[in-house]
Amino acid sequence: MKVAVLQFSPVFGQIEVNLTKVEDYISKEIFDLIVLPELFTTGYLFTSQKEVKSLAEKIPEGFTTKELSRVARKKDAFIVAGLAEREGENFYNSAILVGPEGFIGRYRKVHLFNEEKFWFTPGNLEFPVFNIEIARLGIMICFDWIFPEATRILALKGAELICHPANLILPFCQKAMVTRSIENRIICITANRTGIERRGTQKELKFTGASQIVNTEGRILLRLSQEETIGTVNVDPASSRNKHLTDHNDLFIDRRPELYSLLTHQPSSLNGA
Ligand code: ACM
């Protein structure tokens, strides 16, 4: 299975410009699945709720879902991409999966990062796994990486590949996703964005690029630079089905969930006092 990541720097608020750029990049490549960054149509640094409201789209009725479905049909391939979603008066930092037959499903980011909490509602759809015949895909978005529960749940639900649209600012995620791959024996595809975003008078963020694809043994099969670029590698989704680490260790069978109950509720004291 040929998988790709596209890393680029969207122009804030220019949905059509960003979609055209993505289509130009994609048209030159051959792949079965491509992952695009978080919020790839809008950019990241919102400065008001009014802005979020004007740029967020309905899924699947909105422009971006329709356009990406058209591209997926043309390429006969699957696309995972992050975008701002509007549902009624709620806004989500979401990702969609589309394929040659159109819209397949969505994920709404569960763990919001920093000021995203001003603009978005935390995701309410748990962690979905989609069976697209060539592989079982789990989706999580950017800051979900720091909560190992997200990848673990997707892996326990049978995901073979994690599609991970991102807009990373901190320097830790690329290393951490190697561990997520090893501890779950799962393939992880992180599609990060690049560039610097400046909004208003003070705000500026630099995104870390270095999008990557990691195999079930934590080997980095592909790591991009800081440039706008696209990368592809072959992966074997079936390799994620084998959770054996040694003759006497299976990463899932050896779990001790009866001793993990603290993970499923918030303790009354969060600092252990
Ligand atoms: C992030 O979650 N966009 C850092």
In short:
With 273 residues, the chain is an alpha/beta fold.
Commentary on this structure:
- This protein is α/β, with parallel strands linked by helices.
- It has a single domain (2-244), classed as 4-Layer Sandwich (Nitrilase/N-carbamoyl-D-aminoacid amidohydrolase), CATH 3.60.110.
- Helix content is 21%, strand content 29%.
- The chain contains six helices and 16 strands.
- It has a six-stranded mixed sheet with strand order 5-4-3-2-1-14.
- Strand 15 (244-246) and strand 16 (249-250) form a beta hairpin.
- Bound molecules: acetamide.
Write the layout of secondary structure elements.
Blueprint: E1 2-7, H1 15-27, E2 33-35, H2 49-55, H3 63-75, E3 78-87, E4 90-99, E5 102-108, H4 116-119, E6 129-131, E7 136-139, H5 148-156, E8 161-165, H6 173-184, E9 187-191, E10 196-199, E11 203-206, E12 212-214, E13 220-223, E14 229-234, E15 244-246, E16 249-250
Parallel strand pairs: 1-2, 2-3, 7-8, 8-9
Antiparallel strand pairs: 1-14, 3-4, 4-5, 6-7, 9-12, 10-11, 12-13, 15-16
Helix pairs in contact: 1-3
β-strand amount: 25-35%
CATH homologous superfamily - what is it? Answer: Carbon-nitrogen hydrolase
Radius of gyration: 18 Å
Summarize the amount of helix as a percent range: 10-25%
Subunit arrangement of the protein? single chain
- How many strands, which pairing sense, and closed or not: the largest β-sheet? 6 strands, mixed
Give helix and strand order, one letter per element, not per position: EHEHHEEEHEEHEHEEEEEEEE
Number of strands: 16
Domains (count): 1
Average pLDDT confidence is: 96
Poorly predicted runs = none
Structural class: alpha/beta
CATH architecture: 4-Layer Sandwich
CATH class descriptor: Alpha Beta
Number of helices: 6
CATH-defined topology: Nitrilase/N-carbamoyl-D-aminoacid amidohydrolase
Q: Globular, elongated, flat, extended or rod-shaped: what is the shape?
A: globular
* N-end to C-end Cα span: 50 Å
Q: What ligands can be seen in this structure?
A: acetamide
Strands of the widest sheet, in order across it, are 5-4-3-2-1-14
